[in-house]
Structure formats: C-alpha cells, structure tokens
C-alpha cells in the first residue's frame, strides 16, 4: 500500500538527473515526489513532510541551505540528505552541522544513493519511535516527583493507571523514598483532586489516641474530650485518606478499620451513631507487610482488603542519574531560598554523590544539600564541603585516585603518535566491531557516515600515491 511506503522528496533542478534518481528510488519501493525549485519544495514540505528530503544545494531560485533552515527551525519530521558537487564538500559539512543527516557528492551511483536513503529512513523512523517513547514514558518529573530513571517511569505509569479508580493502593518502600508524595500524586491525578487529602501517620500517634484520630470522638468520651471532634476519616469524606505506616496500628484498631473499609460506615469514640463516609484509601509502610501478617502483627483479612494495587517505590541507590537530577534541583531551590550563589556540583562531588549508597534515600539527600547550602556559599559544590558521611567516601576513593594517577603517568611517558594514525585505528576498530556496518560504526563514534567514507577514500588514495 502506497501510504505505508517511506516518502522521499527529491529537490533537484536538473531534470535528467532527477529522472535517474527517481527510477533508482522507486525500484527500492519508495514513494518519490520531485521539486525543481526551492518554492515548490517548501510548498510540498509544508503540505505533507516526507520521511527523507534529497536536497540539492544549488537551486535556481534559492539556496538549499534556506530550505534546510526552514526544516530545522520548524522541526519537520524529515531527515535531510544534501546533494553537492565535489568542490563544495565543506558546504555540505556545514549543512550537516545545521541539521542535515548525511550528504552525497556528485556523481554517485544508484547503490550509494539507495544505501544513503535507506540509512536516512531508518534514522528517521528510529528518531520518531524514540520521540514517541520519550513523550509517553520518559518524564523527568511527575506530580511532585523528580526523576527520569526506568524504575520511576514504572511508578508514574502505575499512578496514572490506578488514580482514576477507587481501588486501594498499598505503597511500600524504604524510609525516605517519598511514600506520602506518592499518595498525594495518586490523589491529584484522581477525580477526587478537588476534595480533601488527609494524611495520618500511624507511627506518630499514641495507640490509645489512634482510634479517636481516625474516627473522631464525642464530648466526654474520655478524659480530655472537651467537645465533639471529627476524625481523619470524616475529614477525608469525598476525598482520599492516607494511612502512613499502617503496620504500626494495633490489632483491635485493625479490626475496626477493616469494618470501616467493608461497610463505609464509622462510629466516633463514645458515640452509638453510625456515620457514612466516602473515602478512597491509600496506605503505606516501610516494612514487608506479608512478614507482618505471618508474624501475627497485621491482620491477614485487612492485608488483602488494602493490598489491591501494590506500588513499590525504588530506593535512591537504584535510581542512577536521578540522584544528580534531584541534587541539582534541591541545590537551586535551597540556594534561592537561602540567598546563596550555588549553581552546580563539580566532577568530584558528582562522583561522590553517585557512589554513596544513600541509606536515608531522598530525605537524606535533602538534608545533605540543605547542610551544604546553609554552611557554605560559593558557585560550585566541591568534595571538600560535602558533610559527613559523604566526606568519608573521599578517603575510600583515594586508592582508586592513586591508581588513576599511575595510569596517567604511564600514558604521559608513552610516545606521541600522529593524530591521523590514532584516528584511523579508532575508526577501523569501530568498523570491525560492527561487522563492516559503516553507518552503525559512525553512530557509535558520533560522526556522520560520510565522514568515514571520505576518510577511507583519503587513506586509500594516500596508499596508492
């Protein structure tokens, strides 16, 4: 089907050449449209951007560079292959710097043309897939979270999927991983976002007061109950009730919580009246809930009532570059708050941040960055101003630094070789590693395939000469 064929726009003012190029490309299965001037090319580009543009730089009404500039500025989803005469290779290289994918030097045969277009099509299709993936899955922040690592992308997707329902979400994770942030994110992404979000830390309230905190009480129900008081469940009516460290709740209260979840009704302490409330439950713990069930500290029936959608937050040490993303964000935020000059971490500090295991997770990172900003004032964070225990990581790194220094000394004493020899060996190793696939080798070396072709040609000419 024609609509599934990659489309190529050929911008070439020499008709005889255009006919030959069209024939080569159509034989390869491409849908080809031609333009013999710049204005016609721009019209076709804006109407329906092709997968690949074969662009001659010498056109009767304008320079091909002007068309390339429009493609780049308007971010059209087209890979540009520049066609140039032999004497204007420098211009073609400049075009690639401005966004062209590759270039062809006239004269070229059908095999070279089709190979270049095929590489451009593959590149553009891959770029489109990557862009779509990033748009759908790769986010550097989400609903109060900061992080672009794969574990956090999974967290974001679960939140988005679970938020619209009323199903209970059971969040687990080490202390400091952001369980309350996660609960708030679920609430903010849900239809209940305009209703109350009530958080209750079950580990921070004495056991004898916990029932009153959840369900409320009436005046005179116990010593100190000087008036009627709503509990967290009533305050959360229509919204979300977040029970943090739910495994700390005693067994008697667990049975009352189970009844509340099953019936949607509660009784305030000291009252015989039933109240109906509509809440969405989110709970969290830094313990293993199943271990608590097996140990008899957490009711099994309550566990299965709450453990509908499990969501585990990854520890900071498993989030890779998120450590730097968070640290830089915190540094800028705290520096602005404290009116300090800090802007960045130097290479040494970055290495320490990445190597440190962060047992306290994000909360510990927050404390470390706050300590740096409050006690110091400079543009860049260096290792010498990192607080304990991170400054202990510097001592552990000393042997490695010494080894690195020895290696540097050996390299320093090595004979200096001509740059072209080093470059030639590097390129040849890359091509061999890619089984002769030059475009793949070029991608790994972060250079254009044409650069390799041009250098190989110059090496062969030098060998013949």
The value of Rg in angstroms is 32 Å
From the 3D coordinates, which CATH architecture of the largest domain would you assign?
Answer: 3-Layer(aba) Sandwich
Q: Which shape, going by the Cα principal axes? A: elongated
Q: Could you tell me how far the N terminus lies from the C terminus, measured between alpha carbons in angstroms? A: 51 Å
Domain module tally: 4
CATH topology group of the largest domain:
Rossmann fold
What is the assigned CATH homologous superfamily of the largest domain? P-loop containing nucleotide triphosphate hydrolases
Strands in their spatial order, largest beta sheet: 2-1-3-4-5
Q: Give the count of helical stretches.
A: 19
Instruction: Return the structural class.
Output: alpha/beta
Largest sheet: 5 strands, parallel
List unreliable stretches of 5+ residues. 394-411
Compute the number of strand runs: 18
Beta percentage is: 5-15%
User: Helical content, roughly?
Assistant: 40-55%
Keywords: ATP-binding, DNA-binding, Nucleotide-binding, Phosphoprotein, Transcription, Transcription regulation, Two-component regulatory system
Domain Response regulatory: 7-121
Pfam families: AAA_lid_14 (PF25601), HTH_8 (PF02954), Response_reg (PF00072), Sigma54_activat (PF00158)
Domain Sigma-54 factor interaction: 145-374
């Amino acid at each position: 089907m024609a609509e599934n064929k990659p489309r190529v726009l050929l911008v070439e003012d020499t008709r005889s050449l255009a006919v030959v190029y069209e024939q080569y490309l159509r034989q390869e299965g491409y849908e080809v449209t031609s333009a013999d001037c710049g204005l016609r090319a721009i019209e076709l580009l804006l109407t329906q951007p092709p997968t690949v543009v074969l662009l001659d730089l010498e056109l009767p009404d304008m320079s091909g560079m002007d068309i390339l500039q429009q493609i780049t500025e308007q971010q059209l989803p087209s890979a540009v292959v520049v066609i140039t005469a032999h004497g204007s290779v420098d211009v073609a290289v400049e075009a690639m710097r401005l966004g062209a994918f590759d270039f062809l030097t006239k004269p070229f045969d059908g095999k070279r043309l089709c190979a270049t277009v095929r590489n451009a099509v593959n590149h553009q299709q891959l770029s489109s897939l990557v862009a779509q993936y990033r748009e759908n899955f790769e986010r550097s922040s989400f609903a109060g979270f900061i992080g672009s690592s794969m574990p956090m992308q999974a967290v974001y997707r679960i939140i988005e999927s679970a938020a619209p329902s009323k199903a209970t979400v059971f969040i687990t994770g080490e202390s400091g991983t952001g369980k309350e942030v996660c609960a708030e994110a679920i609430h903010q992404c849900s239809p209940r976002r305009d209703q109350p979000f009530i958080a209750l830390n079950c580990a921070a309230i004495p056991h004898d007061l916990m029932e009153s905190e959840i369900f409320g009480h009436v005046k005179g129900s116990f010593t100190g109950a000087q008036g009627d008081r709503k509990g967290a469940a009533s305050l959360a009516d229509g919204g979300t009730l977040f029970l943090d460290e739910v495994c700390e709740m005693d067994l008697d209260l667990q049975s009352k919580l189970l009844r509340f979840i099953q019936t949607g009704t509660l009784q305030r302490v000291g009252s015989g009246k039933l109240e109906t409330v509509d809440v969405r439950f989110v709970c969290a713990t830094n313990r293993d809930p199943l271990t608590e069930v097996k140990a008899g500290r957490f009711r099994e029936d309550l566990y299965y009532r709450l453990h509908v959608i499990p969501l585990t937050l990854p520890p900071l040490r498993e989030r890779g570059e998120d450590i730097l993303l968070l640290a830089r964000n915190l540094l800028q935020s705290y520096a602005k708050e404290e009116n300090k000059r800090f802007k960045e971490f130097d290479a040494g500090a970055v290495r320490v941040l990445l190597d440190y295991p962060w047992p306290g997770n994000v909360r510990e990172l927050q404390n470390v960055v706050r300590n740096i900003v409050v006690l110091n004032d400079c543009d860049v964070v260096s290792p010498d101003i990192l607080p304990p225990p991170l400054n202990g990581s510097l001592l552990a790194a000393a042997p490695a630094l010494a080894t690195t220094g020895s290696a540097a000394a050996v390299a320093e004493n090595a004979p200096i070789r001509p740059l072209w020899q080093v470059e030639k060996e590097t390129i040849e190793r890359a091509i061999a590693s890619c089984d002769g696939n030059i475009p793949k080798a070029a991608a790994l070396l972060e250079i254009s395939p044409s650069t390799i072709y041009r250098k190989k040609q110059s090496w062969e000419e030098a060998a013949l000469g």
